Amino acid sequence: MLRSTAALLVSISVAGGAQPTPASIQTRPVAAELFERDWVLMNWALKFYDRDRDILLEPSEAQTAAAEFRKIADSDGDGRVTPNEYRQARAFILARY
After folding, report:
1. Which of 1, 33, 62, 63 sits a CA distance of 20 to 30 A from 49?
2. Using CA atoms in the order 26, 74, 3, 90, what is the torsion angle rounded to 10 degrees?
3. Hey, where are the domains in the chain?
4. Which helix (H) or strand (E) holds 53?
5. In angstroms, rounded to a whole number, what is the distance separating the alpha carbons of residues 14 and 79?
6. Residue pair 5/37 in contact by the 8 Å Cβ criterion
7. Residue 30 has what pLDDT?
8. Whose CA is closest to 70, among 16, 1, 20, 18?
9. Dihedral sign, CA of 6, 9, 10, 15?
10. DSSP string for residues in the chain
11. Cα-to-chain-centroid distance, residue 23
12. What are phi and psi of 43, to 5 degrees?
């Protein structure tokens, strides 16, 4: 699960600059999947990035939260979030927020 989540974070950063093609258009934003898979991150994202306080992460809110999580998690600044970095960032968020 952590590997797939880390891969998801990498794909979020890559997908931001690519033009969608009919085969790549998704019905649900990739960033939202990150929060749907992890209750700690979902609660953190809702607390700080749910601007309209409707207890739902809109696509733009999820994208903003994912970008902020990436900043917290990418401790070596290489643009990738490894499973270890993911675990450390999750533990940090759980302990701090």
Report:
1. 1
2. -100
3. 2-17+29-96
4. none
5. 10
6. yes
7. 82
8. 16
9. positive
10. -HHHHHHHHHHHHHHTTSPP-TTT--SS-HHHHHHHH-HHHHHHHHHHH-TT-SSS--HHHHHHHHHHHHHHH-TT-SS---HHHHHHHHHHHHHH-
11. 22
12. -65, -40
Q: What is the pLDDT along the chain (97 residues), one digit of tens a residue?
A: 555 555 555 555 444 455 656 555 555 678 899 999 999 999 999 999 999 999 999 999 999 999 999 999 999 999 999 999 999 999 999 999 8
pLDDT value for 8: 54
pTM above 0.85, yes or no: no
Contacts of 80 (CB under 8 A, 6+ apart): 6, 9, 10, 74
> What is the DSSP code (8-state) at residue 28?
S
